[in-house]
Write a structure and sequence with these properties.
- The complex is a heterodimer of chains A (about 110) and B (about 110).
- Chain A has about 110 residues and is an all-beta fold.
- Chain A is about 0% helix and about 50% strand.
- Chain A has no helices and eleven strands.
- In chain A, strands 2, 4, 5, 6, 9, 10 and 11 form a seven-stranded mixed sheet that branches. Chain A has a four-stranded antiparallel sheet with strand order 1-3-8-7, with no helix packed on it.
- The radius of gyration of chain A is 13 Å and the shape is globular.
- Chain A starts with a strand and ends with a strand.
- Chain B starts with a strand and ends with a strand.
- Chain B is globular.
- By secondary structure, chain B is mainly beta.
- Chain B is built from no helices and eleven strands.
- Helix content of chain B is about 0%, strand content about 55%.
- Chain B has strands spanning about 5, 10-15, 20-25, 30-35, 45-50, 55-60, 60-65, 70-75, 85-90, 100, 105-110.
- In chain B, strand 6 and strand 7 form a beta hairpin.
- The chains are: A mainly beta (about 110), B mainly beta (about 110).
- The interface between A and B is medium-sized, with 27 and 23 residues.
């Protein structure tokens, strides 16, 4: 199993550009989520999904969209990038029953200039 | 909304010294999790505590969940350079599987 994979590893955008961060998992987990990590602020939840076709907002959803057409994939779209979105983005997955343990991908480091 | 606070934010120790990080929640938690993130890496799950007053050990790491299920601690005995990283606690929030993470404690171990 590859676990949780994310692409790209690094990205530089100009203000106003849009892009999609990819996330995939091969563990058949129902729950998937996106976090952003900024220095000194821990991990903050952006959006999450409890299964294909179902998504919901987390703590900091503004400026981001998600969709969940399959169990495996959960892309994060930045609609119009802003410097405040410079951050490290982590995707995570978890089985919906049993332990709340979350499996994280390797992250995408995004810089918006 | 729920808040999870973690102290200290930074800790420098000499190799061989002990280390403790504390986690406090504004609400009672059904469970608490601990994660470790190495520099440049991603968070990796360490353990989940569920019961009031629960204590679990993993080699030199001891995890405790408070009696009121609102606080937790991670204690590392005789730190090693391999313990370097940021330790996060996280508690469930909302009706699904959302987690609220503490801001983390960054541990530096000096050789």
């Amino acid at each position: 199993n590859a676990g949780v994979t994310q692409t790209p590893k690094f990205q530089v955008l100009k203000t106003g550009q849009s892009m999609t961060l990819q996330c995939a998992q091969d563990m058949n987990h129902e729950y998937m989520s996106w976090y952003r990590q900024d220095p000194g602020m821990g991990l903050r939840l952006i959006h999450y999904s409890v299964g294909a076709g179902i998504t919901d907002q987390g703590e900091v959803p503004n400026g981001y969209n998600v969709s969940r057409s399959t169990t495996e994939d959960f892309p994060l779209r930045l609609l119009s990038a802003a410097p405040s979105q410079t951050s490290v983005y982590f995707c995570a997955s978890s089985p919906y029953r049993g332990s709340y343990e979350q499996y994280f991908g390797p992250g995408t480091r995004l810089t918006v200039t | 909304g729920q808040q999870v606070m973690q102290i200290p934010q930074y800790q420098h120790v000499q190799e061989g010294e002990d280390f403790t990080t504390y986690c406090n929640s504004s609400t009672t938690l059904s469970n608490i999790q601990w994660y470790k993130q190495r520099p440049g890496g991603h968070p990796v799950f360490l353990i989940q505590l569920v019961k009031s007053g629960e204590v679990k050990k993993q080699k030199r790491l001891t995890f405790q969940f408070g009696e009121a299920k609102k606080n937790s601690s991670l204690h590392i005995t005789a730190t090693q350079t391999t313990d370097v990283g940021t330790y996060f606690c996280a508690g469930p929030s909302g009706s699904a599987r959302q987690l609220t993470f503490g801001s983390g404690t960054q541990l530096t171990v000096l050789p």
